[in-house]
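Input structure tokens:
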């Protein structure tokens, strides 16, 4: 099972959380970024419906897949 780490970092004159190479929006305080990461992390773990998805990979190629709504990643926050 995948595990996602939400890391709190200084970013663009404020604070953000980062998952992999992706940054959240910038927040004015560390506390605001931490709270946003906690909310996003909790929402990431909620099961949803199984549905078809489309996404573009790093090479610009589009993919169609069936996403199992019960297959949710584990998450953690690194502060």
């Amino acid at each position: 099972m995948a595990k996602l780490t939400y890391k709190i970092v200084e970013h663009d004159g404020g604070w953000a959380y980062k998952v992999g190479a992706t940054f959240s929006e910038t927040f004015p305080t560390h506390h605001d970024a931490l709270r946003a990461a906690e909310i996003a992390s909790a929402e990431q773990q909620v099961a949803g419906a199984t549905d078809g998805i489309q996404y573009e990979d790093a090479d610009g190629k589009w993919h169609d897949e069936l996403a199992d709504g019960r297959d949710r990643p584990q998450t953690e926050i690194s502060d």
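The chain has a mean pLDDT of 92. Strands lie at 3-11, 14-19, 22-23, 51-56, 62-67, 74-78.
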